[in-house]
Design a protein that fits this description.
Structural class: mainly alpha
Shape: elongated
Oligomer: single chain
CATH superfamily of the largest domain: Ankyrin repeat-containing domain
Strand order of the largest sheet: 1-2
Strand content: under 5%
CATH class of the largest domain: Mainly Alpha
Number of domains: 3
Helix content: 40-55%
CATH architecture of the largest domain: Alpha Horseshoe
Distance between the termini: 77 Å
Number of strands: 2
Largest sheet: 2 strands, antiparallel
């Protein structure tokens, strides 16, 4: 196995010291001097990083130029986690270094070990100018990493509205389905909390203005409305319904948004969905109604609300079980690995 350059080249360690003194005005001069005296320009440290990688990552344009002029390899891909020099430059917010590397034909679509391209690195760091430059140089805005996520998904995660708008305006695929769904699913997942809930409307407006289909589904067949329902976000639910979200849409198990809300005990969602016209006795693949889903999940408050709204207590699923049967455990003794709660049975007996 080849030894690290820092161990077998006398000036290797000193070169790293010179490069890493990037907070000093004479860093590039120190680097130039060491290279003149024979330091190995592409020496690697214990993390497999080259001096050029450090210079690019720290945004030192002068030192980067010195290293490149001495033959540093801008195409190296064996760096930390497979990141290239361009990945490092994008993460440093340095437009000058990115411009320099692209002018030398650095691969704008190179991938690291996670499948990230430079455009994803720039997006994740929130650097609008670098992202704009990469797009102008032909970087693929729709590249996806190993999780199926694209730059748009990372832009939504980092809350950069200008970057989201830039990507959408340059053809980002808003309907790409990652592990967390489409761009709108991502927005709900990221911003369904009091600290960032206000951002959801802004993100959603950008997506809808770009032609996003509000009823597109994720890998489980769930729409954005279904996700908002499960997270009990009333403002998001209202926004989606006001923008023509399909309240009767069903997922791959034929669960409606109301089924999901009932099974999760989300009474705020249940109330709003019913007020907006959701079918209270809708059936899923098992012919179960939202009341049955609330029953098997032992969501007593949800059952209370549905019964007060005249949910059909006598409906039966495809095994002939009513809500009372399900509460008692007839036909199926467990649900999701846990016994049905006796409280459900007693409650339904009292109501019946």
């Amino acid at each position: 196995m080849q030894q690290r350059s820092g161990n077998n080249v006398r000036t290797g360690p000193q070169l790293y010291i010179g490069v890493q003194r990037l907070d000093t005005r004479d860093a590039w001069q120190i680097t130039h001097l060491l290279l003149t005296y024979g330091a190995t320009v592409d020496a690697r440290d214990q993390k497999d990083l080259t001096p050029l990688f450090y210079a690019a990552l720290r945004g030192n344009e002068a030192t980067t130029r010195v290293l490149i002029n001495h033959g540093a390899n801008i195409h190296a891909t064996e760096c930390f986690e497979g990141n290239t020099i361009l990945h490092a430059a994008c993460a440093s917010y340095d437009v000058g270094i990115v411009t320099m590397l692209l002018s030398l034909e650095a691969n704008a679509n190179a991938r690291n070990d996670r499948g990230w391209t430079p455009i994803m690195a720039a997006t994740g760091c929130g650097c609008f100018e670098v992202l704009q430059l990469l797009i102008l140089q032909g970087a693929d805005v729709n590249a996806v990493d190993k999780s199926g996520s694209s730059a748009l998904g990372y832009a939504i995660a980092s809350r950069g509205l200008d970057i989201i708008r830039l990507l959408v305006n340059h053809g980002a695929d808003m309907h790409n389905v990652s592990n967390r769904g489409t761009a709108l699913h991502e927005a709900i997942w990221r911003h369904s909390n009091p600290h960032s809930n206000h951002l959801f409307g802004h993100v959603a407006q950008i997506l809808l203005a770009g032609g996003f289909d509000i009823n597109v589904r994720d890998g489980r067949g769930r729409t954005a409305l279904m996700e908002a329902t499960v997270s009990n976000q009333l403002e998001v639910i209202d926004f989606l319904l006001d923008n023509n979200a399909d309240i009767s849409a069903k997922d791959d198990c034929s669960n409606s948004a109301l089924h999901l809300a009932a099974g999760s005990g989300m009474c705020t969602s249940i109330e709003e969905l019913l007020a907006r016209g959701a079918e209270i006795n809708a059936r899923n693949n098992c012919e179960r109604t939202p009341l049955m889903e609330a029953t098997v999940s032992s969501q007593l408050e949800a059952k209370d609300f549905l019964l007060d709204k005249n949910a059909d207590i006598s409906s039966k699923d495809n095994c002939g079980n009513s809500a009372l049967h399900l509460g008692a455990g007839s036909g199926m003794c467990t649900y999701r690995g846990t016994p049905y709660a006796g409280a459900s049975t007693k409650y339904l007996e009292d109501e019946h």
